[in-house]
Specification:
The protein has 508 residues and is an alpha/beta fold. It is 32% helix and 24% strand. The strands form three sheets. A nine-stranded mixed sheet has the order 2-1-3-4-9-8-7-5-6, with helices on both faces. It has a five-stranded parallel sheet with strand order 12-11-10-13-14, with helices on both faces. It is globular, with a radius of gyration of 24 Å. The two termini are 38 Å apart. The relative contact order is 0.10. The structure holds xanthosine-5'-monophosphate. The site of xanthosine-5'-monophosphate has 19 residues, from helix 10.
C-alpha cells in the first residue's frame, strides 16, 4: 500500500486514482497524524500531496522529520516538495515569477524516477500551480531538473529514496506523469500490482449496504453520472427506486425532450418529469453572486425532491456526485473551496434525506467506462458534461427568462457547428456564455448596443486540469457569423483561451 499525505491539494485524490490505476492500494491520511498512521500501516511508499499553504506561513502544515528516516521511499509533489525542502533544512521562498498551468521541464540529471522512458525525453511539458519554491536544497539532495522560473523543480536523495517534483505528475496534462508515478510505485517502492474488484460490483455492494429494503429517489439530470447512479441503483433495489427529472428551465435547448426519449426508449428506467421552471426563475430573481446562485439552486432542487419524495414516502436520495465535485466543494480537511459543486448546485445543510452517493470516489472517465460496460447509448456517453446548476452559471449576473432565451440560441449554434465539423466527441465540453457585457455594434448602418457572447471549448480528462481547444478558425468564424445574425440581441462574440488552472471551466 502507498500512503498519501493530504496537504489539501485539489488533486490529492487524483494521485490516489493514478496509483489505483496501477493496481496498488492507497490510503489518504492527514499530516498531523502522519507518523502514527505510517507506523501503523507500514506502507511501501509515501507520497506528499500539494496544498494551498506556505511552509513558512502561519497556517503551515508540516511533517515529523522522523518520517524521512524510516527507510520508506518518499515522493513530494508541489507543496510536498516544499515540505521536504523545508523540513530537511533547505530554504523555501516566495518565487518572483509564479507558474500556473503548462510549462517546460528540463531534466538535468537522471535518476530512478525518470528511468527507462521509451522516448528518453529530456525536456517535456508539465503542469504547475505554485508561488513558493525551494531556493536552497537540503543537505544530501541533488537537483535533477528545472523550469525557466524554478531552478530546483525536482530533486532527490537517491540513497535515502527521497524524491521531490514541483509539477503535478498526476494530472493528465503533464507529459509522462503516469510513467513517473509508475517508476516511483512499482520500481522505487517495489510495490506489486494486485487486480481490484470490478467497479460496478463494488458500487452495487455499497448501494445494497446503504439502502437495504428502504425506498429511494434518484435525481436524474440526464448526464452520465446521475444516469449511471440511477441505473445501478435500479439493478440493486428495483421497484423501491423512483427517478425524477426536474425541468429547471436552465437546461440546453431541446435537452428535456432528449432525456425523456432516452429513458423511455433506450435505457428503460421509470422516470417522472417534474416541471420546475417557475420555481427556479422565482428563486433566482435578483441573485447575482455565483456561490449564492448555486445555493439557491441547490435549495430549490432539494425542496422539490422533498415534495415529490413525500408522496411515495422515500427517505433516501441517490445522487451521481463524482469526486471532482467533492474536492472542488472543499471535500478534504485542508483543501480550499473553489466552488460549491454538486449535482444540484449547493445542497442546503438541512433537508429530510439520507444522501447516498455511489460514485463519490470516481472520476468522469471512470464513470464513462462503467457506462460503456453497461451498454449505455453512445450519444449519452459522448454527451458533453453539463453543470448541475445549468445555464445559470453561464449567465453572468441575474438569471432572467430573456437572457436564458438568448443564451440557449447561441449555445445551440456552438454545439451544432462543432458537431457539423466532426469535433464534438473529441472535446470535453463546448458552450456559450452570456457575459452580461454590452458593446457597441453596427448593423445595417445603424448603431446597436448589444450583448457579448463568449465561446468556450475545452479538453480535459479528469476535470482537475483543462486546456482550451484550438478550434479551427473556419469553425469559429462560422459560429460567430451565425450567432450575430441569428441571435438578434447579440452584437459581439469572443473566444475564451484560458487554461485550468488558473481559470475554471465554467465562468462562475
Ligand atoms: P469548473 O468550472 O469548476 O468545472 O472547472 C469542472 C466541471 O464541473 C462542472 N461543474 C459543475 N457540475 N455542479 C455540477 O454538477 C456544479 O455546481 C458545477 N460547477 C461546474 C463543469 O461544467 C465542468 O465540467
Amino acid at each position: 500500500m502507498i500512503i498519501i499525505v493530504d496537504f489539501g491539494s485539489q488533486t490529492t485524490h487524483l494521485i490516489g486514482r493514478r496509483i489505483r490505476d496501477l493496481g496498488v492500494a492507497i490510503e489518504i491520511i492527514l499530516p498531523q497524524d502522519a507518523l502514527n498512521q505510517i507506523t501503523k500501516h507500514k506502507p511501501k511508499g509515501i507520497i506528499l500531496s500539494g496544498g494551498p499553504a506556505s511552509v513558512y506561513g502561519k497556517k503551515a502544515l508540516l511533517l515529523d522529520k522522523k518520517i524521512f528516516n524510516l527507510g520508506i521511499p518518499v515522493l513530494g509533489i508541489c507543496y510536498g516538495l516544499e515540505v521536504i525542502g523545508h523540513v530537511l533544512g533547505g530554504k523555501v521562498k516566495s518565487g518572483i515569477k509564479k507558474e500556473y498551468g503548462s510549462t517546460h521541464f528540463y531534466l538535468k540529471n537522471d535518476c530512478q524516477l525518470f528511468a527507462d522512458w521509451k522516448s528518453n525525453k529530456k525536456d517535456f511539458t508539465v503542469w504547475m500551480s505554485h508561488f513558493d519554491q525551494v531556493v536552497k536544497l537540503p543537505k544530501g539532495m541533488t537537483g535533477i531538473g528545472s523550469t525557466t522560473a524554478v531552478r530546483h523543480a525536482a530533486f532527490t536523495n537517491e540513497k535515502k529514496k527521497i524524491y521531490a517534483v514541483m509539477f503535478h505528475p498526476e494530472v493528465h496534462h503533464t507529459q509522462y506523469g503516469q510513467d513517473i508515478l509508475r517508476n516511483f510505485v512499482l520500481k522505487i517502492c517495489a510495490e506489486n500490482p494486485i487486480i481490484g474488484q470490478k467497479k460496478t460490483e463494488e458500487i452495487k455492494k455499497f448501494l445494497k449496504e446503504k439502502i437495504g429494503k428502504e425506498k429511494a429517489v434518484c435525481a436524474l439530470s440526464g448526464g452520465i453520472d446521475s444516469s449511471v447512479a440511477a441505473y445501478l441503483s435500479h439493478q440493486v433495489i428495483g421497484k423501491n427506486l423512483t427517478c425524477f427529472y426536474i425541468d429547471t428551465g436552465l437546461m440546453r435547448e431541446g435537452e428535456t425532450a432528449e432525456i425523456k426519449n432516452t429513458f423511455k426508449n433506450k435505457l428503460i428506467l421509470p422516470l417522472i418529469i417534474v416541471d420546475g421552471k417557475k420555481d427556479f426563475l422565482k428563486a433566482l430573481k435578483g441573485v447575482v453572486e455565483p456561490e449564492e446562485k448555486r445555493k439557491v439552486i441547490g435549495e430549490t432542487f432539494i425542496r422539490i425532491f422533498e415534495r415529490e419524495a413525500k408522496k411515495i414516502r422515500a427517505k433516501i436520495l441517490i445522487q451521481g456526485t463524482i469526486y471532482p465535485d467533492v474536492i472542488e466543494s472543499k471535500g478534504t480537511k485542508h483543501s480550499h473551496k473553489i466552488k460549491t459543486h454538486h449535482n444540484v448546485g449547493g445542497l442546503p445543510e438541512k433537508h429530510g434525506f439520507k444522501i447516498v452517493e455511489p460514485l463519490r470516489m470516481l472520476y468522469k472517465d471512470e464513470v464513462r467506462q462503467i457506462a460503456r460496460e453497461l451498454k449505455f447509448p453512445q450519444e449519452m456517453i459522448a454527451r458533453h458534461v453539463f453543470p448541475g446548476p445549468g445555464l445559470a452559471v453561464r449567465i453572468i449576473g441575474e438569471v432572467t427568462e430573456k437572457k436564458l432565451k438568448i443564451l440557449k440560441k447561441a449555445d445551440s449554434i456552438v454545439i451544432e457547428e462543432i458537431k457539423k465539423a466532426g469535433l464534438y466527441e473529441g472535446i470535453w465540453m463546448a458552450f456559450a456564455i452570456f457575459t452580461g457585457i454590452k458593446t457597441t455594434g453596427v448593423t445595417g448602418d445603424e448603431r446597436k448596443y448589444g450583448e457579448t457572447i463568449a465561446i468556450r471549448a475545452i479538453e480535459s480528462k479528469d476535470t482537475m486540469t483543462a486546456d482550451w481547444v484550438k478550434l479551427p478558425y473556419s469553425v469559429l468564424a462560422r459560429i460567430s457569423e451565425r450567432i450575430v445574425t441569428e441571435v438578434f440581441e447579440v452584437c459581439r462574440v469572443v473566444y475564451d483561451i484560458t487554461t485550468k488552472p488558473p481559470g475554471t471551466m465554467e465562468w462562475e
